[in-house]
Amino acid sequence: MAPATPDPFGTAELRAATLAGWRASPTRMAEDAAAERELSDIGYRGRILTELAANAADAAVDDGHLAIRLDGDAIGFANTGVPLTRDGVESLTALRVSPKSHAGAQTVGRFGVGFRSTAFADRVVIASVDGSIEFDRARSVAEVGSADVPAQRLAWPSDVRPPAGFATEVIVHAGHGAAELFATFADQVPDLLLELPALGRIDVGASTFVRTDDGDEIVITRDDEPAARWLVARGEQTMWMARLEVAPESRSVVPLTDDVLRSPTATGVHLGLPARVVARLPLTPDRRAIHPDADIAAAAAGYADLVALAPDAQKHLLIPRPTLAAEPAAARLHEAILADLAAARWVPTCGGDVVAPDRAWVLPGLPDELGEVLADVLDPLAHPDVSDRVSASALVRLGGRELGLADLADELGAVSRPPPWWGRLYTALAALVHTGDDAAELGALPIPRTDGRTHVGARGLFVLDGFDGSDAAPDWLPLVDPDAYDPLLDRLGLEHRDIAEALADPALQAAVDAADSHADLAATVLGLAVLGDLETVPGLGRLELRADDGDDWPADELLLPDAPLLPVLDDSPFGTVDAALVRRYGGKALRAIGVGWGFAVVHDDLPTGPDHDLPDEAQWWDGFDVPPETLDAVRDLDLVDPERWRDALALLVEEPRTAGLVESGYTRWWLRRYAEIDAVSLRHLRSPDDERFTGLFDALPGVPAALLVGDGPDDADDAQVWLDRLGSDRAVPAGVAARAHAALVAAVRDGRVRVDDLASVDGVRTLAGTVTDAPIVVDRPWWTTVVPADRAVLPGPVVDAADAAILADVLDADLASQVCRAVVVGDGETVDADCPEAVALTARWGRQVVGRVVVHADLTVAVDVDGVEREVGVPYWEDSGGTVHLRSD
Fold first, then answer.
1. Coil, strand or helix: which one is 204?
2. Which end of the chain lies in a sparser environment, N or C, as judged by fewer CB atoms within 10 Å?
């Protein structure tokens, strides 16, 4: 007979007492069986690992080790710590008794009923170093004689012992479902190590899970590889945790979505929070719900500490979002957490402080660069890491003051900082300005000006392109300080001006007129002219500059010391600019604002009359029926030394500002009339390339042809010169004389010349090239063959009766048809106008033959010219009756 199994815990007496109780109350066993089934099938169903791990934690209290193994249809749960005791056995054989008083508040058990999670098994062995027991459903049935018997009220001693190194092992004979159940444990272990800090290690088969506390982090490893990482904020009764990415180098928060309350192990209370809480709250007996009397709001303590520990850029991930909580308990916790977050100091500021949300100013979307700039002027402005759109919205919900762009502009109104600081501000602020509405909100943004003042908003303010601030800034324009300029200001309404536009601004003209002294203004203007490398700046002639005589002169009354204009002037009224100004600013800048080098130019966009102080301007103006659209003219031409016109003309042509004016407008008009070379007006000289009037006018090289003789006389004075030269002893070819006569006729016909304004002439150039005082103007082509060449005067290269009549009037001469008589001698043969002779005449002379045609073998005309009669042979003739006479050869 085998020796009896030792029974150190008195299981026989415990069984006897239980059986006695059942016999004393026939319903007691049925009630116990029902209660056990309720706990096993409902209250603790599926919680075997959680409850046995909690028991292991209670036994270990600190740094416990739980090892789970699968052995066929049995699963063993071995733990270190306090071994099984008699009190423990008595509790296990009861339904609602717990012996876990040794650990006080640090233990997990409440009613000692968690072990009933194993009641589904037919046999459970609790092996311990000081003795072992087992529950066996078959033995219980045999003992009582009834199948409806509680499985875990009757215990028997066992000789099974725990594995070496462990104090206790619970061996659950789970039957054919053991392997499937065992396979679920590995996924639960990481959470259990978080919930049960007394356990430091749990083995599941060959896998080892270890919890490591590292400051404010807990790391769960599986076989030395990280399996989970948590950020932890510990309190007296709660531990709040935020899940982190597993990678050791990362500290990124991974918010939870549907976690449950853990007290300390998982309950069925869904919280809907992004973080996990392990609390010490009273629960219902099945550990799935919070006790009605529990103060769940107390669990909110420490949540703000967790948010404070999270990286700034991820704090928003832990702020509970507005939600309609499914459970009243969860709603109360949400409310308490938000209240705690609103009052606690966890919001980092740009200035490096940490404040409560209700003390923070929040600028949604605040960029890092802008936060750096604003750090020392807007306190407490929430740091950019907590100012993204989501974080900012959360902070505002917690009581933060939201700043819009308009609010920011208002707050900056009292800030005093140097221009470079403002430039950095605008550069950083640009990232927040996306639309026209955004730009409009910054209408009151302070902007430093070059004059040291602050402009409210960008509208009405200018930036001077090309101005670097090295010289004095123009004070006639409100300019943004160059060190503060940023393209953002353009989007806010800032206007650009280049240096030329700034110097042409009417405000400068007003400043010139209003200033008592121009010294500072002149320095600014000249500095800008140098900076802009300008060729000319109209309208600054009144700006006074220091002359070499020590007085201040208007710029347009000064010349540069080496100005080429000086030598060509006769008794110059100009002063000479001080050499010190030339050395400092250079001749180009001085010339740009009006100091003379060459001839000055007058410009008027809308001239209305001869009021530009130009010599003989009124006379030129009389030539217009309608005022010219613009006026551009060279001034002071009347000051040229008459002996220096060759040099003056060269200077006019070489200067870009005047070169284009000499060939048109007032300047051409004046020069042709009044500029003289060797006492001869330019309009009475010709270009060497112009041979139309060779002999009549002398050639002048090196002068634009537009300034010299034109197609004809301009006026009566000019025409008189033409007539006088035609009647002079100059060698004028007959062809030139004919062209000149035609030009005179055209001038009369066009109205440029009135015959009454012309004086009589002593001589007239003839067809022979000679001069006669008894001219006869040929008014019909055929008269050229009978009027003596030394008296015949042609009205043009082609004889026209109307032109001849005008020329005769100009010359006060007779027409050939008036003073000459001619009669055809002899008879001829009347022929058709299409005969060969008539056709040949048409081809030869370009005259269309119409009417009666008479052909003569020898065509002779008897002519009487001033009483001198003679007969002349001619090729053709037209008599007074219109008959055309032709010679037959």
1. strand
2. N
Q: pLDDT by residue (tens digit) across 615-643?
A: 999 999 998 889 999 999 999 999 999 99
- Nearest CA-CA partner of 495 in 468, 467, 528, 460: 460
Q: What is the pLDDT of residues 730-786, one digit of tens each?
A: 999 999 999 999 999 999 999 999 999 999 999 999 999 999 999 999 999 999 999
Q: What is the token pair recorded at 139? A: 């033995």
Burial label for 826, CB within 10 Å (0-12, 13-18, 19+), is exposed
As a whole number of angstroms, the distance between CA 304 and CA 347 comes to 10
Give CA–CA dist 290/268, Å, rounded.
9
Going by their DSSP bridges, the two strands 884-887 and 853-856 should be labelled as parallel
Sign of the CA dihedral running 587, 592, 596, 597:
positive
Q: If we measure between CA atoms, which residue out of 643, 590, 639, 651 comes closest to residue 614?
A: 639
377-to-350, 387, 411, 488 alpha-carbon distances in Å: 10, 17, 9, 21
Using an 8 Å Cβ cutoff, are 359 and 324 in contact? no
Of 446 and 596, which is predicted with more confidence? 446
Average pLDDT over residues 91-98: 72
Residue 104 has what pLDDT?
Answer: 40
Q: How far apart are CA 601 and CA 47, in angstroms?
A: 104
DSSP secondary structure, 213-271, as one string: EETTEEEEEETTEEEEEEEEEE-SSEEEEEEE-SSTT---B---SS-EEESSSEEEEE-
Cβ(245)–Cβ(305) below 8 Å: no
Q: What is the pLDDT of residues 213-229, one digit of tens each?
A: 988 999 999 999 999 99
Quick check: 885 and 856 in contact, CB under 8 A?
yes
Q: Each residue of 713-734: pLDDT tens digit? A: 999 999 999 999 999 999 999 9
Examine the pLDDT at 613 and tell me if it is beyond 70.
yes
Calculate the alpha carbon distances from 555 to 475, 575, 658 in Å: 20, 9, 18
Report which DSSP code applies to 320.
P
Mean pLDDT of all residues in 642-665: 93
Whether pLDDT at 110 is above 60 = no
Write the single-letter amino acid at 182: F
pLDDT at 102: 41
Closest CA to 106 of 126, 90, 82: 82
User: Which DSSP letter does residue 34 get?
Assistant: H
The full 3-state SS of 726-787, as one line of letters, equals HCCCCCCCHHHHHHHHHHHHHHHHHCCCCHHHCCCCCCEECCCCCEECCCEECCCHHHHHCC
- Integer angstrom CA distances of residue 54 from 115, 130, 743: 10, 21, 129
pLDDT at 106: 45
Tokens of 560: 């540069």
Residue from 790, 788, 689, 699 nearest 737 by CA: 790
776 contacts 815 by C-beta, under 8 angstroms: yes
Query: Residue 109: what pLDDT?
Result: 44
Sorting pLDDT into bands at 50, 70 and 90, what band is 673?
very high
Please report which helix (H) or strand (E) contains residue 23, including its range.
helix 11-24
| Helix (H), strand (E), coil (C) string for 839-864 | HHHHHHHCCCCCCCEEEECCCEEEEE
Q: How far apart are CA 168 and CA 618, in angstroms?
A: 128
CA pair distance 260, 742, nearest whole angstrom: 117
Among the four given CATH numbers 1.25.40.180, 3.40.50.360, 3.30.565.10, 3.30.530.20, the one describing domain 11-190: 3.30.565.10
pLDDT surpassing 70 at residue 103: no
Residue 326: its pLDDT value, please? 61
Where do the structural domains in the chain lie, given as residue ranges? 11-190, 215-343, 349-403, 413-493, 603-707, 737-820, 826-887
pLDDT of residue 845: 64
